[in-house]
Amino acid sequence: HSRSGGSLAYYARVVAILLLLVAGAVSTTLARSWSYHYKPIAAKPSATPTTEANIALAKPASGEQLSPARLLKRAIVSNLALFVLQQNSYSEKAYADHSAYVTSRLSHFDSLTSPEALAVFASLSGYNLGARAQQLYECLSLRKGKALEPYFEQYLHNGSNECVHELGASMTQPNAALGNHPLCPSDEQQKIRLTTLLSAIESAKTCSDSELAAAATHPGASALNP
Predict the structure, then answer these.
(1) How does pLDDT run across 126-181, given as a tens digit for each residue?
(2) Rounded to an integer, what distance in angstroms lies between the CA atom of residue 147 and that of residue 152?
(3) Distance between alpha carbon 66 and the CA centroid of its chain, in Å?
(4) What is the number of other CB atoms lying within 10 angstroms of the CB of residue 221?
(5) What angle do CA 65, 71, 72 make, to 5 degrees?
(6) Which DSSP string do the residues of the chain spell out, in sequence order?
(7) Which long-range contacts (CB under 8 A, 24 or more apart) does 158-162 make?
(8) Nearest Cα to 160, choosing from 149, 151, 170?
(9) What is the pLDDT along the chain (226 residues), one digit of tens a residue?
């Protein structure tokens, strides 16, 4: 049994790595051809505990083709979940590499402007992306501006349990890998975040190219509170 268990873990890691490599190769130019609307579906929290295997082996429904925006989101969320699960084996360098990977994928959303891409980007507000990526997310939100308002308002009024549904209730617990914050924030935490973002967008705050580059390369002051 130990040998078969080891084999399963090995193949799960291979699938995870391949998945992330595919997401990393996504061309942002290709994303402009995707314009259909993305409609988040509310679902009950999953009772299945999050493991490396079920993260790695998660697949889209049969026949479903993922857009570049959704591939980027999958890469980001999978990496975050795996990092949280493996926190005890990560060094400071590994943490830096993880942050660089997430921000690199997140930065691709700057050029994605279709309604579907905006909806996917807005859905990431239901995850704790980590300090560095969260600063970049704020900057990107300001750059997209009022185009994001309807999507953020939807989550503000209706909430989102997508993170818990996809990754399990264990991800609502504070985690040292994310600065003692949970990967899946509470409803109240989501409301505070969305209210702050919407307020900044309404007041026409901006995030320049230089501020975007800084947020993507190293942590600094929040785009909302410079």
Answers:
(1) 999 988 899 999 999 999 999 999 999 999 999 899 999 999 998 998 887 787 88
(2) 10
(3) 15
(4) 11
(5) 160
(6) -HHHHHHHHHHHHHHHHHHHHHHHT--TTGGGG--PPP-----PPP-SPP-HHHHHT--PPTT----HHHHHHHHHHHHHHHHHHTGGG--HHHHHHHHHHHHHHHHGGGG--SHHHHHHHHHGGGS---HHHHHHHHHHHHHHGGGGHHHHHHHHHH---HHHHHH-GGGGS-BGGGTTB-SS--HHHHHHHHHHHHHHHHTT----HHHHHHHHHS--S-SS--
(7) 158/42, 159/187, 159/190, 159/191, 160/40, 160/42, 160/123, 160/125, 160/126, 160/190, 161/42, 161/43, 161/44, 161/45, 161/126, 162/40, 162/43, 162/123, 162/126
(8) 151
(9) 544 444 444 445 434 544 444 444 333 333 333 223 333 333 333 344 444 334 343 445 545 688 999 999 999 999 999 888 876 555 677 778 888 999 999 999 999 999 999 999 999 999 999 888 999 999 999 999 999 999 999 999 998 999 999 999 989 988 877 878 899 999 999 999 999 999 999 999 999 999 999 988 865 444 444 4
Instruction: Return the residue matching tokens 């857009």.
Output: 67
- Quickly tell me which residue has 């259909």 as its tokens: 36
